[in-house]
């Protein structure tokens, strides 16, 4: 094969891979959007297996007070029998994908009851998802409390 055909073949391979890469982010955004929504719903219904399955083993959360939660302490908090979270929606939701890392962010107005007392909170968050062995899991979450 001459250099001309080798160059043409290489150019065609690059062009073909560019097309499939261009299609991939939209599919990943859809997948992560559905996955994040399912995780939120699992938290509301206190589905421990579904919550934990979406989390990386080394998960960390920086909460509104600046404290760090591990996977175990996060699960303990959201599964606490004293806590009931009402269904909620996410506003200003955005997904940005950078290879095997994705940043999911938005705002949430959450209501519920803790230890018999109603609560209402408004916060902005960012969830960092990492893809390992083809599976996306949330590795880190940070929330910032907003004024109502």
TrEMBL record:
Pfam families reported for this sequence: DUF4440
InterPro entries: DUF4440 (IPR027843), NTF2-like_dom_sf (IPR032710)
Highest rank taxon of the organism: Bacteria
Residues of the signal peptide: 1-22
All residue ranges annotated as the DUF4440 domain in the record: 37-138
UniProt KW keywords: Signal
Coiled coil, from the record: none
Protein name per Swiss-Prot or TrEMBL: DUF4440 domain-containing protein
Taxonomic lineage: Bacteria, Pseudomonadati, Pseudomonadota, Betaproteobacteria, Burkholderiales
């Amino acid at each position: 094969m001459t250099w001309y055909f080798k160059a043409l073949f290489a150019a065609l391979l690059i062009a073909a891979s560019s097309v499939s890469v261009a299609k991939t982010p939209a599919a990943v955004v859809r997948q992560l959007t559905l996955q994040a929504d399912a995780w939120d719903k699992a938290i509301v219904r206190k589905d421990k297996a579904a919550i934990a399955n979406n989390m990386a083993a080394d998960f960390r959360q920086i909460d509104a007070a600046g404290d760090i939660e591990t996977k175990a302490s996060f699960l303990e908090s959201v599964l606490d029998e004293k806590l009931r979270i009402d269904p909620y929606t996410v506003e200003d939701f955005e997904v940005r994908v950078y290879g095997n890392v994705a940043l999911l962010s938005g705002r949430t107005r959450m209501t519920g009851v803790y230890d018999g007392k109603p609560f209402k909170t408004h916060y902005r968050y960012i969830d960092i998802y990492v893809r390992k062995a083809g599976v996306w899991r949330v590795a880190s979450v940070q929330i910032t409390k907003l004024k109502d």
